[in-house]
From TrEMBL:
Any one GO BP annotation for this protein: positive regulation of transcription by RNA polymerase II
CC annotations in GO: nucleus
Protein name: Uncharacterized protein
Keyword hit for Transcription regulation: no
Record organism: Ogataea polymorpha
GO molecular function, one term: DNA-binding transcription factor activity
Subcellular location: Nucleus
Length: 491
């Protein structure tokens, strides 16, 4: 894409988001801008660096910081490689752990490494928790191999599972025990998802769900207290939300916890016309897009509610009663659609995540990712609520905008967040040229990006095209996933 088209895309984003445009012509950006990169040895969280306000980006960030009502400081973490336990790792273990710190964590994170909970939470805990250490080593080994056929990483994964099972049998679990167990579950889930697993990850996620239910009786606010009510505990809850709304099972049956509970625990205000994410915890897997994931959960649960209403409607035999109930059903459907559409349009990015970005290009990439999700959700809303077929012009018009945004951020630091958007864009393609370009786009992406569930997305998209050759029907990706016996994660 040439510079003029990119500039036009960015300017449109700024207009949509209601902010001053910060696009700068090539050659005028700050010299030697520091791109996000791993800090390797020292795993630290630092407060946001003060800016001088010279550039347009810094003026925007200063404005955001002024309007932010919450404190946003982090405590630095220990230099973990100075600790004796780390020095006693074998050569293989050290190599895998180094690969996790230097590559895995930065590849998956949308945010700078110094604010990445994949490092700042997991690594200090791994120093004294063998299950977490084994899980990280196994995850790193699987990520490096790209397959579960490698014996060594699987040995560490199994060791983490065994240690986790042993801890669960303890009669009394302390707050640190519970926090560390949740971490192990998430590490094991992530390890499976990264190699394209479509079953084991969901079994582990189901065990985590049961553990949470047993501990807090289904009250997520209570769970935070049981995990120590720390920023790390809040990130774990945010991570559960992320995996919940991106699970094919949740799209079929509704989320595992009500979205209102997630919002209450994470300081998110689910307003009628706009969702306000005021939480100070910045999720490395969601970044500024987290409000869109919350809205995705609302779309999922609204669809589930309407499906139940449709089932009751279909069971009515009396014609007069049927007509009245059908009117009520269609009225509720349209009201739900309009309310969700309004929220999607009016919701802004998660401000604290934007405050962490230190150069113009990163800000542009994150705003583009946010716009990508906004467009994806508007298309997906039409599929889930109105059952709109992709061939209709309104879908095709939004698809053109969506693919433009995706192409802007391919091969950038935010590309790991594109899985759901690629699925929506893929099943929306109807024209043979669009389908050919989408397949080429995904093939190229999969050849460069190591997370294997993107390859599964391409398989499902192809299947959707087979089932919907002319785009005249609404075909759900999660129905295809279920028909193949998959529990797919779009994380």
């Amino acid at each position: 894409m040439d510079a003029e088209n990119v500039a036009d895309a960015i300017c449109k984003l700024c207009k949509r988001l209601g902010i001053e445009c910060v696009w700068r012509q090539p050659g005028t950006e700050r010299k030697n801008a520091k791109r996000r990169q791993s800090r390797a040895i020292k795993v630290r969280l630092s407060s946001v660096e003060e800016t001088s306000g010279v550039s347009a980006t810094h003026m925007l960030i200063d404005t955001l910081r002024t309007n932010l009502q919450t404190s946003f400081d982090y405590e630095p973490q220990t230099n973990v490689f100075s600790l004796p336990f780390i020095r006693h790792l074998s050569e293989t273990e050290s190599r895998y752990l180094d690969y996790y710190i230097n590559y895995v964590s930065s590849t998956l994170s949308l945010l700078p490494q110094e604010t990445n909970y994949l490092l700042s939470l997991y690594i200090p805990l791994a120093v004294h928790n063998k299950a977490i250490m084994s899980g990280l080593i196994g995850w790193s080994g699987l990520f490096l191999a790209g397959t579960k056929s490698e014996e060594t990483p699987m040995k560490y994964i199994q060791n983490a599972v065994d240690l986790c099972d042993k801890t669960l049998k303890s009669k009394e679990l302390t707050i640190p025990d519970k926090l560390e167990l949740v971490c192990v579950f998430f590490i094991l889930c992530a390890a499976e998802i990264c190699v394209g697993d479509v079953k084991n990850w969901y079994d582990i996620f189901g065990r985590l769900h049961k553990f949470i239910l047993d501990e807090c009786n289904g009250n997520l606010k209570t769970l935070l207290g049981l995990l120590g009510d720390t920023e790390g505990a809040k990130w774990l809850l945010s991570n559960f939300l992320y995996h919940d709304v991106l699970s094919s099972s949740s799209h079929e049956e509704g989320t595992l916890f009500p979205i209102d509970q997630y919002c209450e625990a994470l300081d998110i205000i689910p307003g009628t016309t706009q969702l306000m994410d005021s939480g100070t915890v910045c999720d490395p897997l969601q970044g500024c897009v987290r409000p869109m994931y919350v809205l995705l959960g609302q779309i999922i649960n609204t669809k589930h509610k309407l499906d139940k209403m449709q089932e009751k409607l279909d069971a009515i035999e009396d014609r007069d009663s049927y007509k009245q109930k059908k009117f009520e059903f269609l009225t509720a459907l349209e009201m739900d659609f309009e309310e969700l559409e309004t929220r999607i349009k009016n919701t802004n990015p998660h401000t604290p995540s934007l405050l962490l970005l230190k150069d113009d290009k990163e800000l542009e990439d994150h705003l583009t990712l946010f716009e990508t999700y906004k467009l994806s959700l508007r298309i997906y809303l039409r599929y889930m609520i109105r059952k709109t077929p992709p061939a209709l012009p309104e879908i095709q018009l939004m698809l053109q905008e969506l693919t433009l945004c995706m192409d802007v951020i391919m091969d950038t630091n935010v590309q790991s967040g594109l899985c759901f958007a690629l699925m929506v864009a893929g099943i929306s393609c109807v024209d043979p040229v669009d389908r050919e370009q989408m397949e080429a786009r995904l093939r190229s992406f999969c050849s460069r990006f190591p997370v294997k569930n993107f390859e599964l997305v391409l398989i499902l998209i192809r299947k959707a095209w087979e089932l919907n050759k002319d785009g005249a029907h609404c075909v759900n990706w999660f129905d295809i996933s279920e028909s193949m016996g998959w529990y797919l994660s779009l994380a």
